[in-house]
Amino acid sequence: MSWREKGQRVRVLLSQADWYLCFGVVFLLCVLIGLSMAVMKLNAVLNDADALPIEAVAIKGERLYTDDKEIQIALQDLMQRSFFSADVTQVQEALEALPWVYKASVRREWPAKLKVYLVEQKPVAHWNGDAWLNIYGEVFDAPVKEGISNLPLLTGPEEQSKSVLTTYQQLGELLRINGFNLQSLSLSPRHAWHAELNNGIKLELGREDKMARIQRFIHVYPKLAKQDKQVAIVDLRYDTGLAVGWDDAQKESR
Hints:
It is a single-pass type II membrane protein. Residues 52-121 form the POTRA domain. The protein is of the alpha/beta class. Helices cover 39% and strands 24% of the residues. The protein contains six helices and twelve strands. It has helices at 3-46, 68-75, 88-96, 161-176, 210-225, 247-252; strands spanning 56-60, 101-109, 113-120, 123-127, 131-134, 139-140, 153-155, 182-187, 193-197, 202-206, 231-235, 243-246. The strands form two sheets. The protein has a nine-stranded mixed β-sheet with strand order 6-5-4-7-8-9-10-11-12. A three-stranded mixed β-sheet has the order 1-3-2, with helices on one face.
């Protein structure tokens, strides 16, 4: 074979190679365009609230203070989205923003339902007048609801809410097993404790030895109760004794 024939054959092979390469590139582009269009179409369908709407929201968990209407209002904008485009984190945050909801968990359930589990706040005390304390000693704000039993009145610096609740539980238990009922407890800015029983007796406990001073009151009270006068206040801020203010004396001083 001459050099001329070899050159012609090489040119033919290169020409065929260019053709196959061009065909392959065009085919690949067509495939990529087709896939892109399919992805865009699928994305449009998944985000179309009319095509894949959220048809139901199933709410579970014991609810005493949060009604269905509050939940509907909280979710009304988020429910306009499709089943797939709805952000469960946003749904959770919207529910947890409700005043009586402590925690919410949300998950999707095919084909068109959201399942929600709610945990409500459990109030154990009034805090600083218009707020509440939950079972963890955390402060929360919520409107008053029917069905809430009489709760103790606790007051103190905001950052001391857990300490005040713990102290109330400790003192309250000691008083309860001895026939008394602790109605309110206050911690002053100077960290002095003030208590009041449900029979109106006020106890000044000071800053230290709260349990010992309560025990001293319990021990002495039977003797005080024998008096003809009504006890108004008992000052227990002494190392060994106490001072008593009588109800009649309180009235005369006014």
